[in-house]
Amino acid sequence: MDLPREFEERMKKLLKEEYESFIKTYNEMKTQGLRVNTLKIDIDEFLKISHFKLNKVLWAEEGFYYKEEDKPGKNPYHEAGLYYIQEPSAMAVGTLLNPQPGDRVLDLCAAPGGKSTHIAAKLKGEGLLVANEIYPARSKILSQNIERMGIKNCIVTNESPQKLSMKFKNFFHRILVDAPCSGEGMFRKDPATCREWSLDNVSMCAQRQLDILEEAQKMLMPEGILVYSTCTFSHEENEGVIEKFLKKHPEFTIEEVKGFEGFSHGREDWILSEELSLRKTIRLWPHKLKGEGHFIAVLKKQDGEEGKIKNNRKKIDKKSLKYYYDFAKQYLQNPLEGYFILFGDQLYILPEGVPDLEKLKVVRPGLHLGIIKKNRFEPSHALALSLNYKEVKNNIFMDADSSEIIAYLKGESMYFDGKRGWNLVSVDGYAIGWCKIANNMLKNHYPKGLRWVGL
Ligand SMILES: C[S@@+](CC[C@H](N)C(=O)[O-])C[C@H]1O[C@@H](n2cnc3c(N)ncnc32)[C@H](O)[C@@H]1O
């Protein structure tokens, strides 16, 4: 790989005798991983049904290395949300954040959603996840990934950290700042980051990271946990940012966390700091473990006030839900219930404990159920992916290695002898989308934007 000269020189100076083994990794293959979505399938069952050649990632029980030839990105199980393709080192962040069912968690820099979907799996459907992304186009991709993984208790916002912190004062039990960074740890995975690297950019990133952390800390409850992570090696963006943050916020301390084989500690000596607790931060190096470069700091807020959040939301008039209930009676074993909310004609169920979202740009205020049309209800793709086939009355089952499932994913209509009306299509028993049956024809409702092309 063609690395920036200044980057190589810096790393040589810092790593000294370790440099040779570090630099050799750039001639090796990048590591690739997938994380089983335990919201939909348990790990043993996944290992039984998938024919991938997988090896365990040490620091994430749901994480596995896969082999390129298995092409897990182009597989019906992927579309059914049975796993998320995630760089193995990145899985350490969810492990160390360690969210508990019932927690309120904020993922402040969330797109495309690797860590958010990991957090959601750990919440096991209980509690609240707010997944935020500042760029509109990226927030849509984040929302799609949340939906594919069948997550019900997540709202997706498209806001700046400043705007969010005005709303959610001292509200979250756990916050993740997976900060935008110079990406030095991802050069093998993403050569574009390598081309864009400069020392000026490193400094700019460090300032932006501090600004983001400043907003994040306002939203954390006392005793809450704030995890800061980057995928870069630069000490300015790692130990440097944490040192500056702690100086300004003595109410935070660095937590001692469970290490895993291959993890290294932070380098306070690289920023000439006497703050020895910086050693408790974690570094993941490609020459010491099977993964790309990462930095993780787990911080705890010792004191402060707990926030009170108002919720003046009016309950929705049940009459406007008539078409939803007609649909649910005809097609679901039991109607999904909860706190309903209508955004225009789009119907959602809000997760529990969501405060008033007024004045925020909300991409997805919870589980999208569908659209209330003039005289009927049309179920959403998100609803399909959040269901188990046992919750639905009409089902169509397809095998993962059948030509039918490929045709379905390509958006084709086909002859099919099934029950009239809406049917849930499943691959090996895992929901993948809707179709409608009429006159022995299957009308395909797999979303246009997700359809497979060129196979
Ligand atoms: C490292 S990526 C996040 C990856 C994500 N957590 C995951 O695991 O899939 C950082 C994200 O921060 C966003 N970002 C950029 N500038 C930002 C800012 N000023 N405030 C908050 N987020 C920002 C980027 O658009 C990007 O999506």
UniProtKB/TrEMBL annotation:
The reply on keyword Mitochondrion is no
What PROSITE patterns does its record include?
Answer: SAM_MT_RSMB_NOP
Family as reported in the entry's similarity comment: Belongs to the class I-like SAM-binding methyltransferase superfamily. RsmB/NOP family.
Q: Does the keyword Transferase apply?
A: yes
Tell me the organism: Crassaminicella thermophila
SAM-dependent MTase RsmB/NOP-type domain sequence ranges: 1-302
Q: What SUPFAM superfamilies does the entry give?
A: S-adenosyl-L-methionine-dependent methyltransferases
Q: Which domain of life is it from?
A: Bacteria
Q: Which UniProt keywords apply?
A: Cytoplasm, Methyltransferase, RNA-binding, S-adenosyl-L-methionine, Transferase
Task: Report residues binding S-adenosyl-L-methionine.
Answer: C109, A110, A111, P112, G113, G114, K115, E133, D178
- What is the name of this protein? NOL1/NOP2/sun family putative RNA methylase
GO MF terms listed in the record are: RNA binding; RNA methyltransferase activity; S-adenosylmethionine-dependent methyltransferase activity
